[in-house]
Amino acid sequence: MPAAKKGLAKGKVEESSLLDQLVGAVSAQKAAFCCGGEVQVSNNEENLLSRFENLTYDDGKATSASIVLRWDLPSGKTVRKLALPPSEAADGAAVIEGLLKHCTPATFGKAGEEVLDESYRKAAKLDAHQFSTNFNPHDVGIVDAISQILLPGVAKPFVDGKSTFEDNLSVAAELYKLNIYSGPSGKFRAHVDTPRGAKQFGSLVICLPYPHEGGQLCVAHQGLETVFDWGRKEANKIQWAAFYSDCEHEVLEVKSGHRLTPTYNLYVRERLGGVMRQNTSVNLKQYALSNKIIDALKAPDFMTKGGVLGFYCQHAYAHTNDNHRNRLPYALKGIDAVFYSTFYHLGLDVEVRPVMKGMPDEEDRKLRKQLQGAELVGAKLHGVILSDAGGCEDEGSATMIVKSKWLSEWYKGIVWFNEPGPRELAMVHMAYGNEPSLEWHYSSAAILVKVPASGSELRDKVTKG
């Protein structure tokens, strides 16, 4: 047992261990390299306009109409189609057999050449100009999710510093191929994709709702691995995964059925929009953080009396600028978006608040003792405070001036996952001295999560899902 844990009660040791695991899960997720989720296929065949009219930021879940896949015959004179999910398994199988007859074996790139080797890759494919589908990943929020989670890790090289800013960039998904991996031997051994252009940064794989077993997609990056298991899923759900081009990935052997996957190339482009929805298509349970949170909250000795978890935002946001602060939390990016949304969708109380670090040493010993271990947290996100206080000796210390003017409160015992990130100017006031001067104070945007006490109704609700 580490020296720091010697002498601790059993419950405290367990709590400390769980906190270490949570910190480890966040540290391992410094930059998201892949994401994925699912979209429900609606049985209600309404037109597109009515589906979008019912979808807002806080109400209405993104759904997809039944999928129709059309492809050309070699003659070019007639077209065949497949409806998914199939109404009858036998009918679907017969149509897919017809589809496979018009596909060609899938090749892969090796040393600048296209190679056909079924011991390495066994699949059938159609190129983008040979088929079409009514499914569009932009329509159901998939591309918005990719923009929030994957784009921050690659945006900076595309920013020219004059006409383009990181916040103005978004993602375009271009249909590339239809790949079909069939049981009992369809597979694609571990490989890394070759980017098709300077602005391509990743790939998107859509798994259409057709039953199959096996065919898991394994994505690995810098010692971490995520497995997307789309076999044996409900027939009325579309599964998806997106990942960076430099990620090694593999399609494990399909044991039975057919794994139908349209693939898209992902490109950086000018932003058209993106929000953090209450009903999201992202499956947050795929992240280690989500599972560790549930495990910790189930433990009766973890933060028994409740408490506050804190995570300093790793990306810069103009959180003290009146024109930008109202965009939070919707403008969160990368790991910040993952952290916030994980707790938010569990139903916990989570907020983005400004935190002021590095206050001057307090000369009043009594006050210094009272404030030991306390954090000065803004009551809400607000603009820069300009005050004329501080010009006289009897107006108190800088600490008390800031506390009285900066719309804030003291927090004790916040459990922080990381160190403060980018800072913004928060307050300016006068300073008493031989000559007139100004005191400048800065704050960092932080995500604060209130952990309910053991046995509380909210904690029981979160752990029981």
From TrEMBL:
Keywords: Iron, Metal-binding, Oxidoreductase. Pfam families: 2OG-FeII_Oxy_3. Coiled coil: none annotated. Residues 164-270 form the Fe2OG dioxygenase domain. GO terms for molecular function: metal ion binding; oxidoreductase activity. It comes from the Eukaryota. Belongs to the iron/ascorbate-dependent oxidoreductase family. This is Fe2OG dioxygenase domain-containing protein. It comes from Letharia lupina. The lineage of its organism: Eukaryota, Fungi, Dikarya, Ascomycota, Pezizomycotina.
